[in-house]
Amino acid sequence: MALKNTAENYGTIAKWLHWGTAILFLASYVSVYYRQWFTEEKTPENWTALQLHLSVGVTIAVAVALRIIWRLMNRVPDLEPGSKMEHRAAHAGHYALYAIMIIMPVTGYVGTGVNTEYFFMFDIPKFEDTQLFVSLIKEGMGLSFKEFEAPIDFIHKEILGAWLVWLLILGHAVAALYHQFVKKDRTLAKMTTGK
Ligand code: HEM
Ligand code: HEM
């Protein structure tokens, strides 16, 4: 198995980053909705679930940074035969997925008023306590953290988290299944067994 991508297949590193990220997205949804639906506020479980959500999100940020570097160092496998429209849609979908892998951790981090206790090993200071917040947002724009946080939270939770992100991932997974079972081409194989 090749480490790098080839014209026919994604390589091992791209596959690990892809499927690892998919598991992390699942974990970020499970932790945040477990917190909202199954825990009472101000209990240890509620805090643990929140901290897991924050830690998983920060990990996604690191993974996407590695992934972008790796993608720039590699060719991308060729798309399977299809119309120009289908290829445009595939590229647009992939770019949109990269966008949410960046935007979700960024809006999550800057809009959160508590430190991230990274998997309970060490603390990552909250944005409000950073020099960037003080010079750019507080002094530069004259906003308090509360004023700054409200629209960012709305984007992270109400627009992206609650709807756009999972719908986009669902569309992506349905497209993969469509290729596998209707078009019967190698799209899913490229990201899995390579056969
Ligand atoms: C790709 C990564 C992420 C995804 C997919 C994601 C997704 C979500 C979703 C679905 C919600 C719940 C929306 C709702 O209320 O309906 C949420 C809430 C939240 N997220 Fe994220 N998030 C990510 C990363 C982060 C990061 C990195 C942080 C902070 C460091 C963060 C902080 C929060 C906070 C504080 C809430 C509110 C929790 C609550 O009200 O229970 N998120 N996120
Ligand atoms: C839910 C299960 C998932 C399945 C079945 C799946 C399947 C696939 C397949 C088959 C490809 C190769 C497409 C091609 O070359 O034409 C692919 C690529 C890709 N997937 Fe997924 N995926 C899943 C989840 C995710 C998630 C959660 C994300 C990120 C949020 C994601 C982001 C991407 C990106 C960005 C590419 C393009 C990679 C590149 O060329 O750099 N996928 N996926």
TrEMBL record:
One of its GO terms (biological process) is respiratory electron transport chain. It comes from the Bacteria. Its cofactor is heme b. One of its GO terms (cellular component) is plasma membrane. Keywords: Cell membrane, Electron transport, Heme, Iron, Membrane, Metal-binding, Transmembrane, Transmembrane helix, Transport. It holds the Pfam family Ni_hydr_CYTB. Residues 10-194 form the Cytochrome b561 bacterial/Ni-hydrogenase domain. It is found in: Cell membrane. The chain crosses the membrane at residues 16-34, 54-73, 94-112, 160-181. Belongs to the cytochrome b561 family. This is Cytochrome b. It comes from Thalassomonas viridans.
